[in-house]
Amino acid sequence: TINEVAAKVNSTVSENERRQKLSDIQQRFQGNVELVKPDRWFIREAVMMKMCRKGPKNFQFYLFNDSLLYADVVLPNNALRLHRLIYLKDCTVLDNPNQNSFQILSNEKSFTVLTEDWTTKTDWLKDIENLKKDKKGGSKVTTEESKIYAPVWTPDKDAPNCTVCQVKFTWSKRR
């Protein structure tokens, strides 16, 4: 029928647009960054802040169906410098309730992402959760309690006690 043909054409056009977007993103990177794969497509992007040792820092974040990537924007040509690509199957995402932030936990790197507003945060969390549930997204959601992740960096002012043994830090007992 005409509706079936129209749906197929729309699906093909949409898939081609997603692949072209992936190619456009890849071309912005300095160095040899290979993002284009037959089973990878672009989902969303945003400039968000990542908590770093010296405070929050802006990064360009990209969400693909199988991974999350963040990069520095390098001026003057707006090129991108890759910081990390994290596969969704290898990470857990935790919401920080009552804040415009969430945490990405992986065995290589764990960190807090600060969003501009509540809508941005919920959109990213919803998409990541849906991708992790979807077989095409790399894996199903796991409930492995024993999985070990890299620790999330915590500013000194937010950690008066050791997170392992709960001993209070003093001038002689350092972080």
Task: Describe the model.
The structure is a single chain. With 175 residues, the chain is of the alpha+beta class. It contains two helices and seven strands, in the order H-E-E-E-E-E-E-E-H. A seven-stranded antiparallel β-sheet has the order 4-3-2-1-7-6-5. The longest helix is centred in the first third of the chain and has 27 residues. About 6% of the residues have low confidence.
Low-pLDDT stretches are 136-146
Most strands sheet: 7 strands, antiparallel
Strand order of the largest sheet: 4-3-2-1-7-6-5
Helix content bin: 10-25%
Structural class: alpha+beta
Q: What Rg, in angstroms, do the CA atoms define?
A: 19 Å
State mean pLDDT (0 to 100 scale). Answer: 84
Sheet-strand content, in percent, reads 25-35%
The string of secondary-structure elements, in order, is HEEEEEEEH
Give the end-to-end Cα distance, rounded to a whole number of Å: 68 Å
Count of helical stretches: 2
Multimerization status: single chain
By DSSP, the count of extended strands is 7
What would you call the shape? elongated
Question: Secondary-structure blueprint of this entry?
Answer:
Elements: H1 2-28, E1 42-52, E2 55-64, E3 67-74, E4 79-87, E5 91-96, E6 101-106, E7 111-114, H2 118-133
Short structural description:
This protein is α+β, with helices and mostly antiparallel strands and 175 residues long.
Sum up the structure in keywords.
175 residues; alpha+beta; seven-stranded antiparallel sheet; 2 helices; 31% strand
